[in-house]
Amino acid sequence: MNVEVSRERLDLSSTVAEGDIRCLLMVLMHMTGDERWLEPPYKPKRDVRLIPDPDAGLPQAIQDEIRAAVVNLFARGHPKPVISDPGDELMLRMMRACLGENVTPEYAPLMREEMGFVARDARWTKAPSNETLAQQHVLIVGAGVCAIALGVALGRLGIPYTIVEKNDELGGTWYINRYPGCGVDTPNHSYSYSFGSRNPWTRYFCQREELLDYLLRRGKYGQATHSPRPGLILLDLNMPRKDGREVLREIKATAELRKIPVVVFTTSKADTDIESVYELGANSFISKPVQFEGLVNLMRVIGQYWFGTVELPLAK
After folding, report:
1. Could you tell me the pTM of the whole model?
2. How confident is the model at residue 89 (pLDDT cuts 50, 70, 90)?
């Protein structure tokens, strides 16, 4: 007798058959609320490798039972999870069971935030006035992955900020390192910005060029939804690898960038430098103060002027 099985069920079974047992156990716990999945004989063995054994060190019969339970759970559609938010206590139990480690309690709220169970973004209970915000200008040193995320978070709160970078492009370590085979050793989702759309990485561990394209919004990542443009560019003239004048020329020659105001921020006071950058389209020329206190005060003035007084075009 021939028994026909739906294509959807076959696809589900094939997918579950390749799934990591640890992930499948957490799916069962999340969807059913049944805490027996956190106890023996289902508890995974401890594995400290970067890519652990997907079988989790469990006997084949136990693996089969877990996979069958997941297939049965989703066989009739997409059930609603029993647990909408595990809370810190249950999250900690799940993490300890999943990893076979005595995970410290501090990681539970962090992971709940990472997984979207609780809001990550800071929000005003009462938004300050624009005048108050303009006096709280933030200086971010370095334009790496975290600096970009911090800038977006500050922008959402209406807090003016400036990112300064010694290199002629953003990207931090992914701009500097260029050796053959350079790439991430952490899964790509750790580099995906939650404020952007879901990113279709081509590899689980992407190479430097793809990550830099993502950060710079080049190539297939050029859509505006992936990351915001800066509202203001502070540009040094004497940068490594590429002269600031060349960068300014490229900015003003690029349709997507030319509307962004560029403030040349350099140690030079030469009349020839001032004249040349204005001819290239710079919006302001400012000489850097020697003392740190002077730098902080100047950043505050720049922030108040460009983000508190001037009307700028909307970032796209």
Report:
1. 0.55
2. very high
Q: Domains (ranges, CATH) in the chain?
A: 7-114 (no CATH), 130-176+229-309 (3.40.50.2300), 184-227 (no CATH)
Dump pLDDT digits (tens) for 193-243. 877 777 788 888 888 888 888 888 787 777 655 555 677 888 888 766 567
Q: pLDDT value at position 122?
A: 81
Which one has a higher pLDDT value, 221 or 54? 54
Q: Please give the full DSSP string across the chain, using - where no structure is assigned.
A: ------HHHHHHHHHHHTS-HHHHHHHHHHHH--GGGGSTTSPPPP--SSS--TTTT--HHHHHHHHHHHHHHHTTS-PPPS-S--HHHHHHHHHHHHHTS---TTHHHHHHHHTTSS--S---SSPPPHHHHHT--EEEE--SHHHHHHHHHHHHHT--EEEE-SSSSS-THHHH---TT-B-SS-GGGGS-TTSPPP--SSSS-BHHHHHHHHHT-GGG-STTSSPPPS-EEE-SS-SSS-HHHHHHHHHH-TTTTTS-EEEEES---HHHHHHHHHTT-SEEEEPPSSHHHHHHHHHHHHHIIIIIS--PPP-
